[in-house]
């Protein structure tokens, strides 16, 4: 598992930003949605450990301006990690396991959004994940050939099997502080 030195010790950037989209319910999760309702291409946006924050909303809005309908489910149900959770990686991993377990929380959330998109007639869906969310996006592509592509921004916790099992093209975008992505 690869955890860049820049990860899990840096708080989110704070900025004033007013989101352009709306929040809807998909199953039992809030989901930020933005973009043209007639779009046939969508992106599922998997945020970092800090959940819904101004940079995440702005990222969704930028992608929607390129013609995509963007869906960002609230995986943490309003209880994201906070700055005081940083620094102790084992404590952080425990929090993530509790609030975003793959089998009981994350996969059902992604599948719920996927079903919603299919019901809307959206024909192409990509994933974008940030930091911890990148690993979750990789996992989703390993579980389903439904996704057209995945982009990973500042990918953390990535392992070789994440790349080997993916059923979609991958785009890796490390930050300048991440260094090389190696085993």
Commentary on this structure:
The structure is a single chain. This protein is an alpha/beta fold and 183 residues long. It contains 5 helices and 7 strands, in the order βββαβααβαβαβ. Strands 1-2-4-3-5-6-7 form a 7-stranded mixed beta sheet, with helices on both faces. It starts with 21 loop residues before the first strand and ends in a 10-residue tail after the last strand.
In terms of topology, how is this protein built?
Layout: E1 22-26, E2 29-34, E3 41-46, H1 54-64, E4 69-73, H2 89-99, H3 102-119, E5 124-130, H4 132-143, E6 149-153, H5 160-165, E7 170-173
Parallel strand pairs: 3-4, 3-5, 5-6, 6-7
Antiparallel strand pairs: 1-2, 2-4
Question: Summary?
Answer:
This protein is an alpha/beta fold and 183 residues long. The protein has helices at 54-64, 89-99, 102-119, 132-143, 160-165, and strands at residues 22-26, 29-34, 41-46, 69-73, 124-130, 149-153, 170-173.
Using brief descriptors, characterize the structure shown.
183 residues, alpha/beta, 32% helix, 7 strands, 7-stranded mixed beta sheet
Helix and strand sequence:
EEEHEHHEHEHE
Cα-atom radius of gyration: 15 Å
Number of helices: 5
Described by the principal axes of the CA atoms, the overall outline is globular
């Amino acid at each position: 598992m690869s955890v860049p030195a820049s990860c899990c010790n840096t708080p989110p950037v704070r900025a004033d930003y007013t989101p352009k989209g709306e929040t809807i319910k998909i199953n039992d999760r809030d989901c930020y949605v933005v973009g043209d309702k007639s779009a046939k291409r969508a992106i599922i946006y998997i945020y970092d450990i800090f959940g819904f924050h101004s940079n995440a909303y702005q990222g969704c809005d930028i992608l929607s301006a390129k013609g995509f309908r963007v869906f960002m489910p609230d995986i943490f149900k309003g209880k994201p990690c906070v700055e005081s959770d940083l620094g102790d990686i084992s404590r952080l991993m425990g929090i993530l396991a509790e609030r975003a377990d793959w089998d009981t929380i994350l996969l059902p959330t992604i599948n719920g959004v996927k079903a919603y998109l299919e019901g809307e007639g959206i024909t192409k869906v990509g994933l974008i994940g940030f930091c911890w969310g990148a690993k979750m996006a990789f996992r989703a592509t390993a579980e389903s050939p439904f996704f057209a592509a995945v982009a990973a921004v500042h990918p953390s916790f990535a392992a070789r099997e994440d790349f080997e099992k993916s059923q979609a093209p991958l785009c890796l975008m490390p930050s300048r502080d991440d260094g090389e992505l190696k085993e």
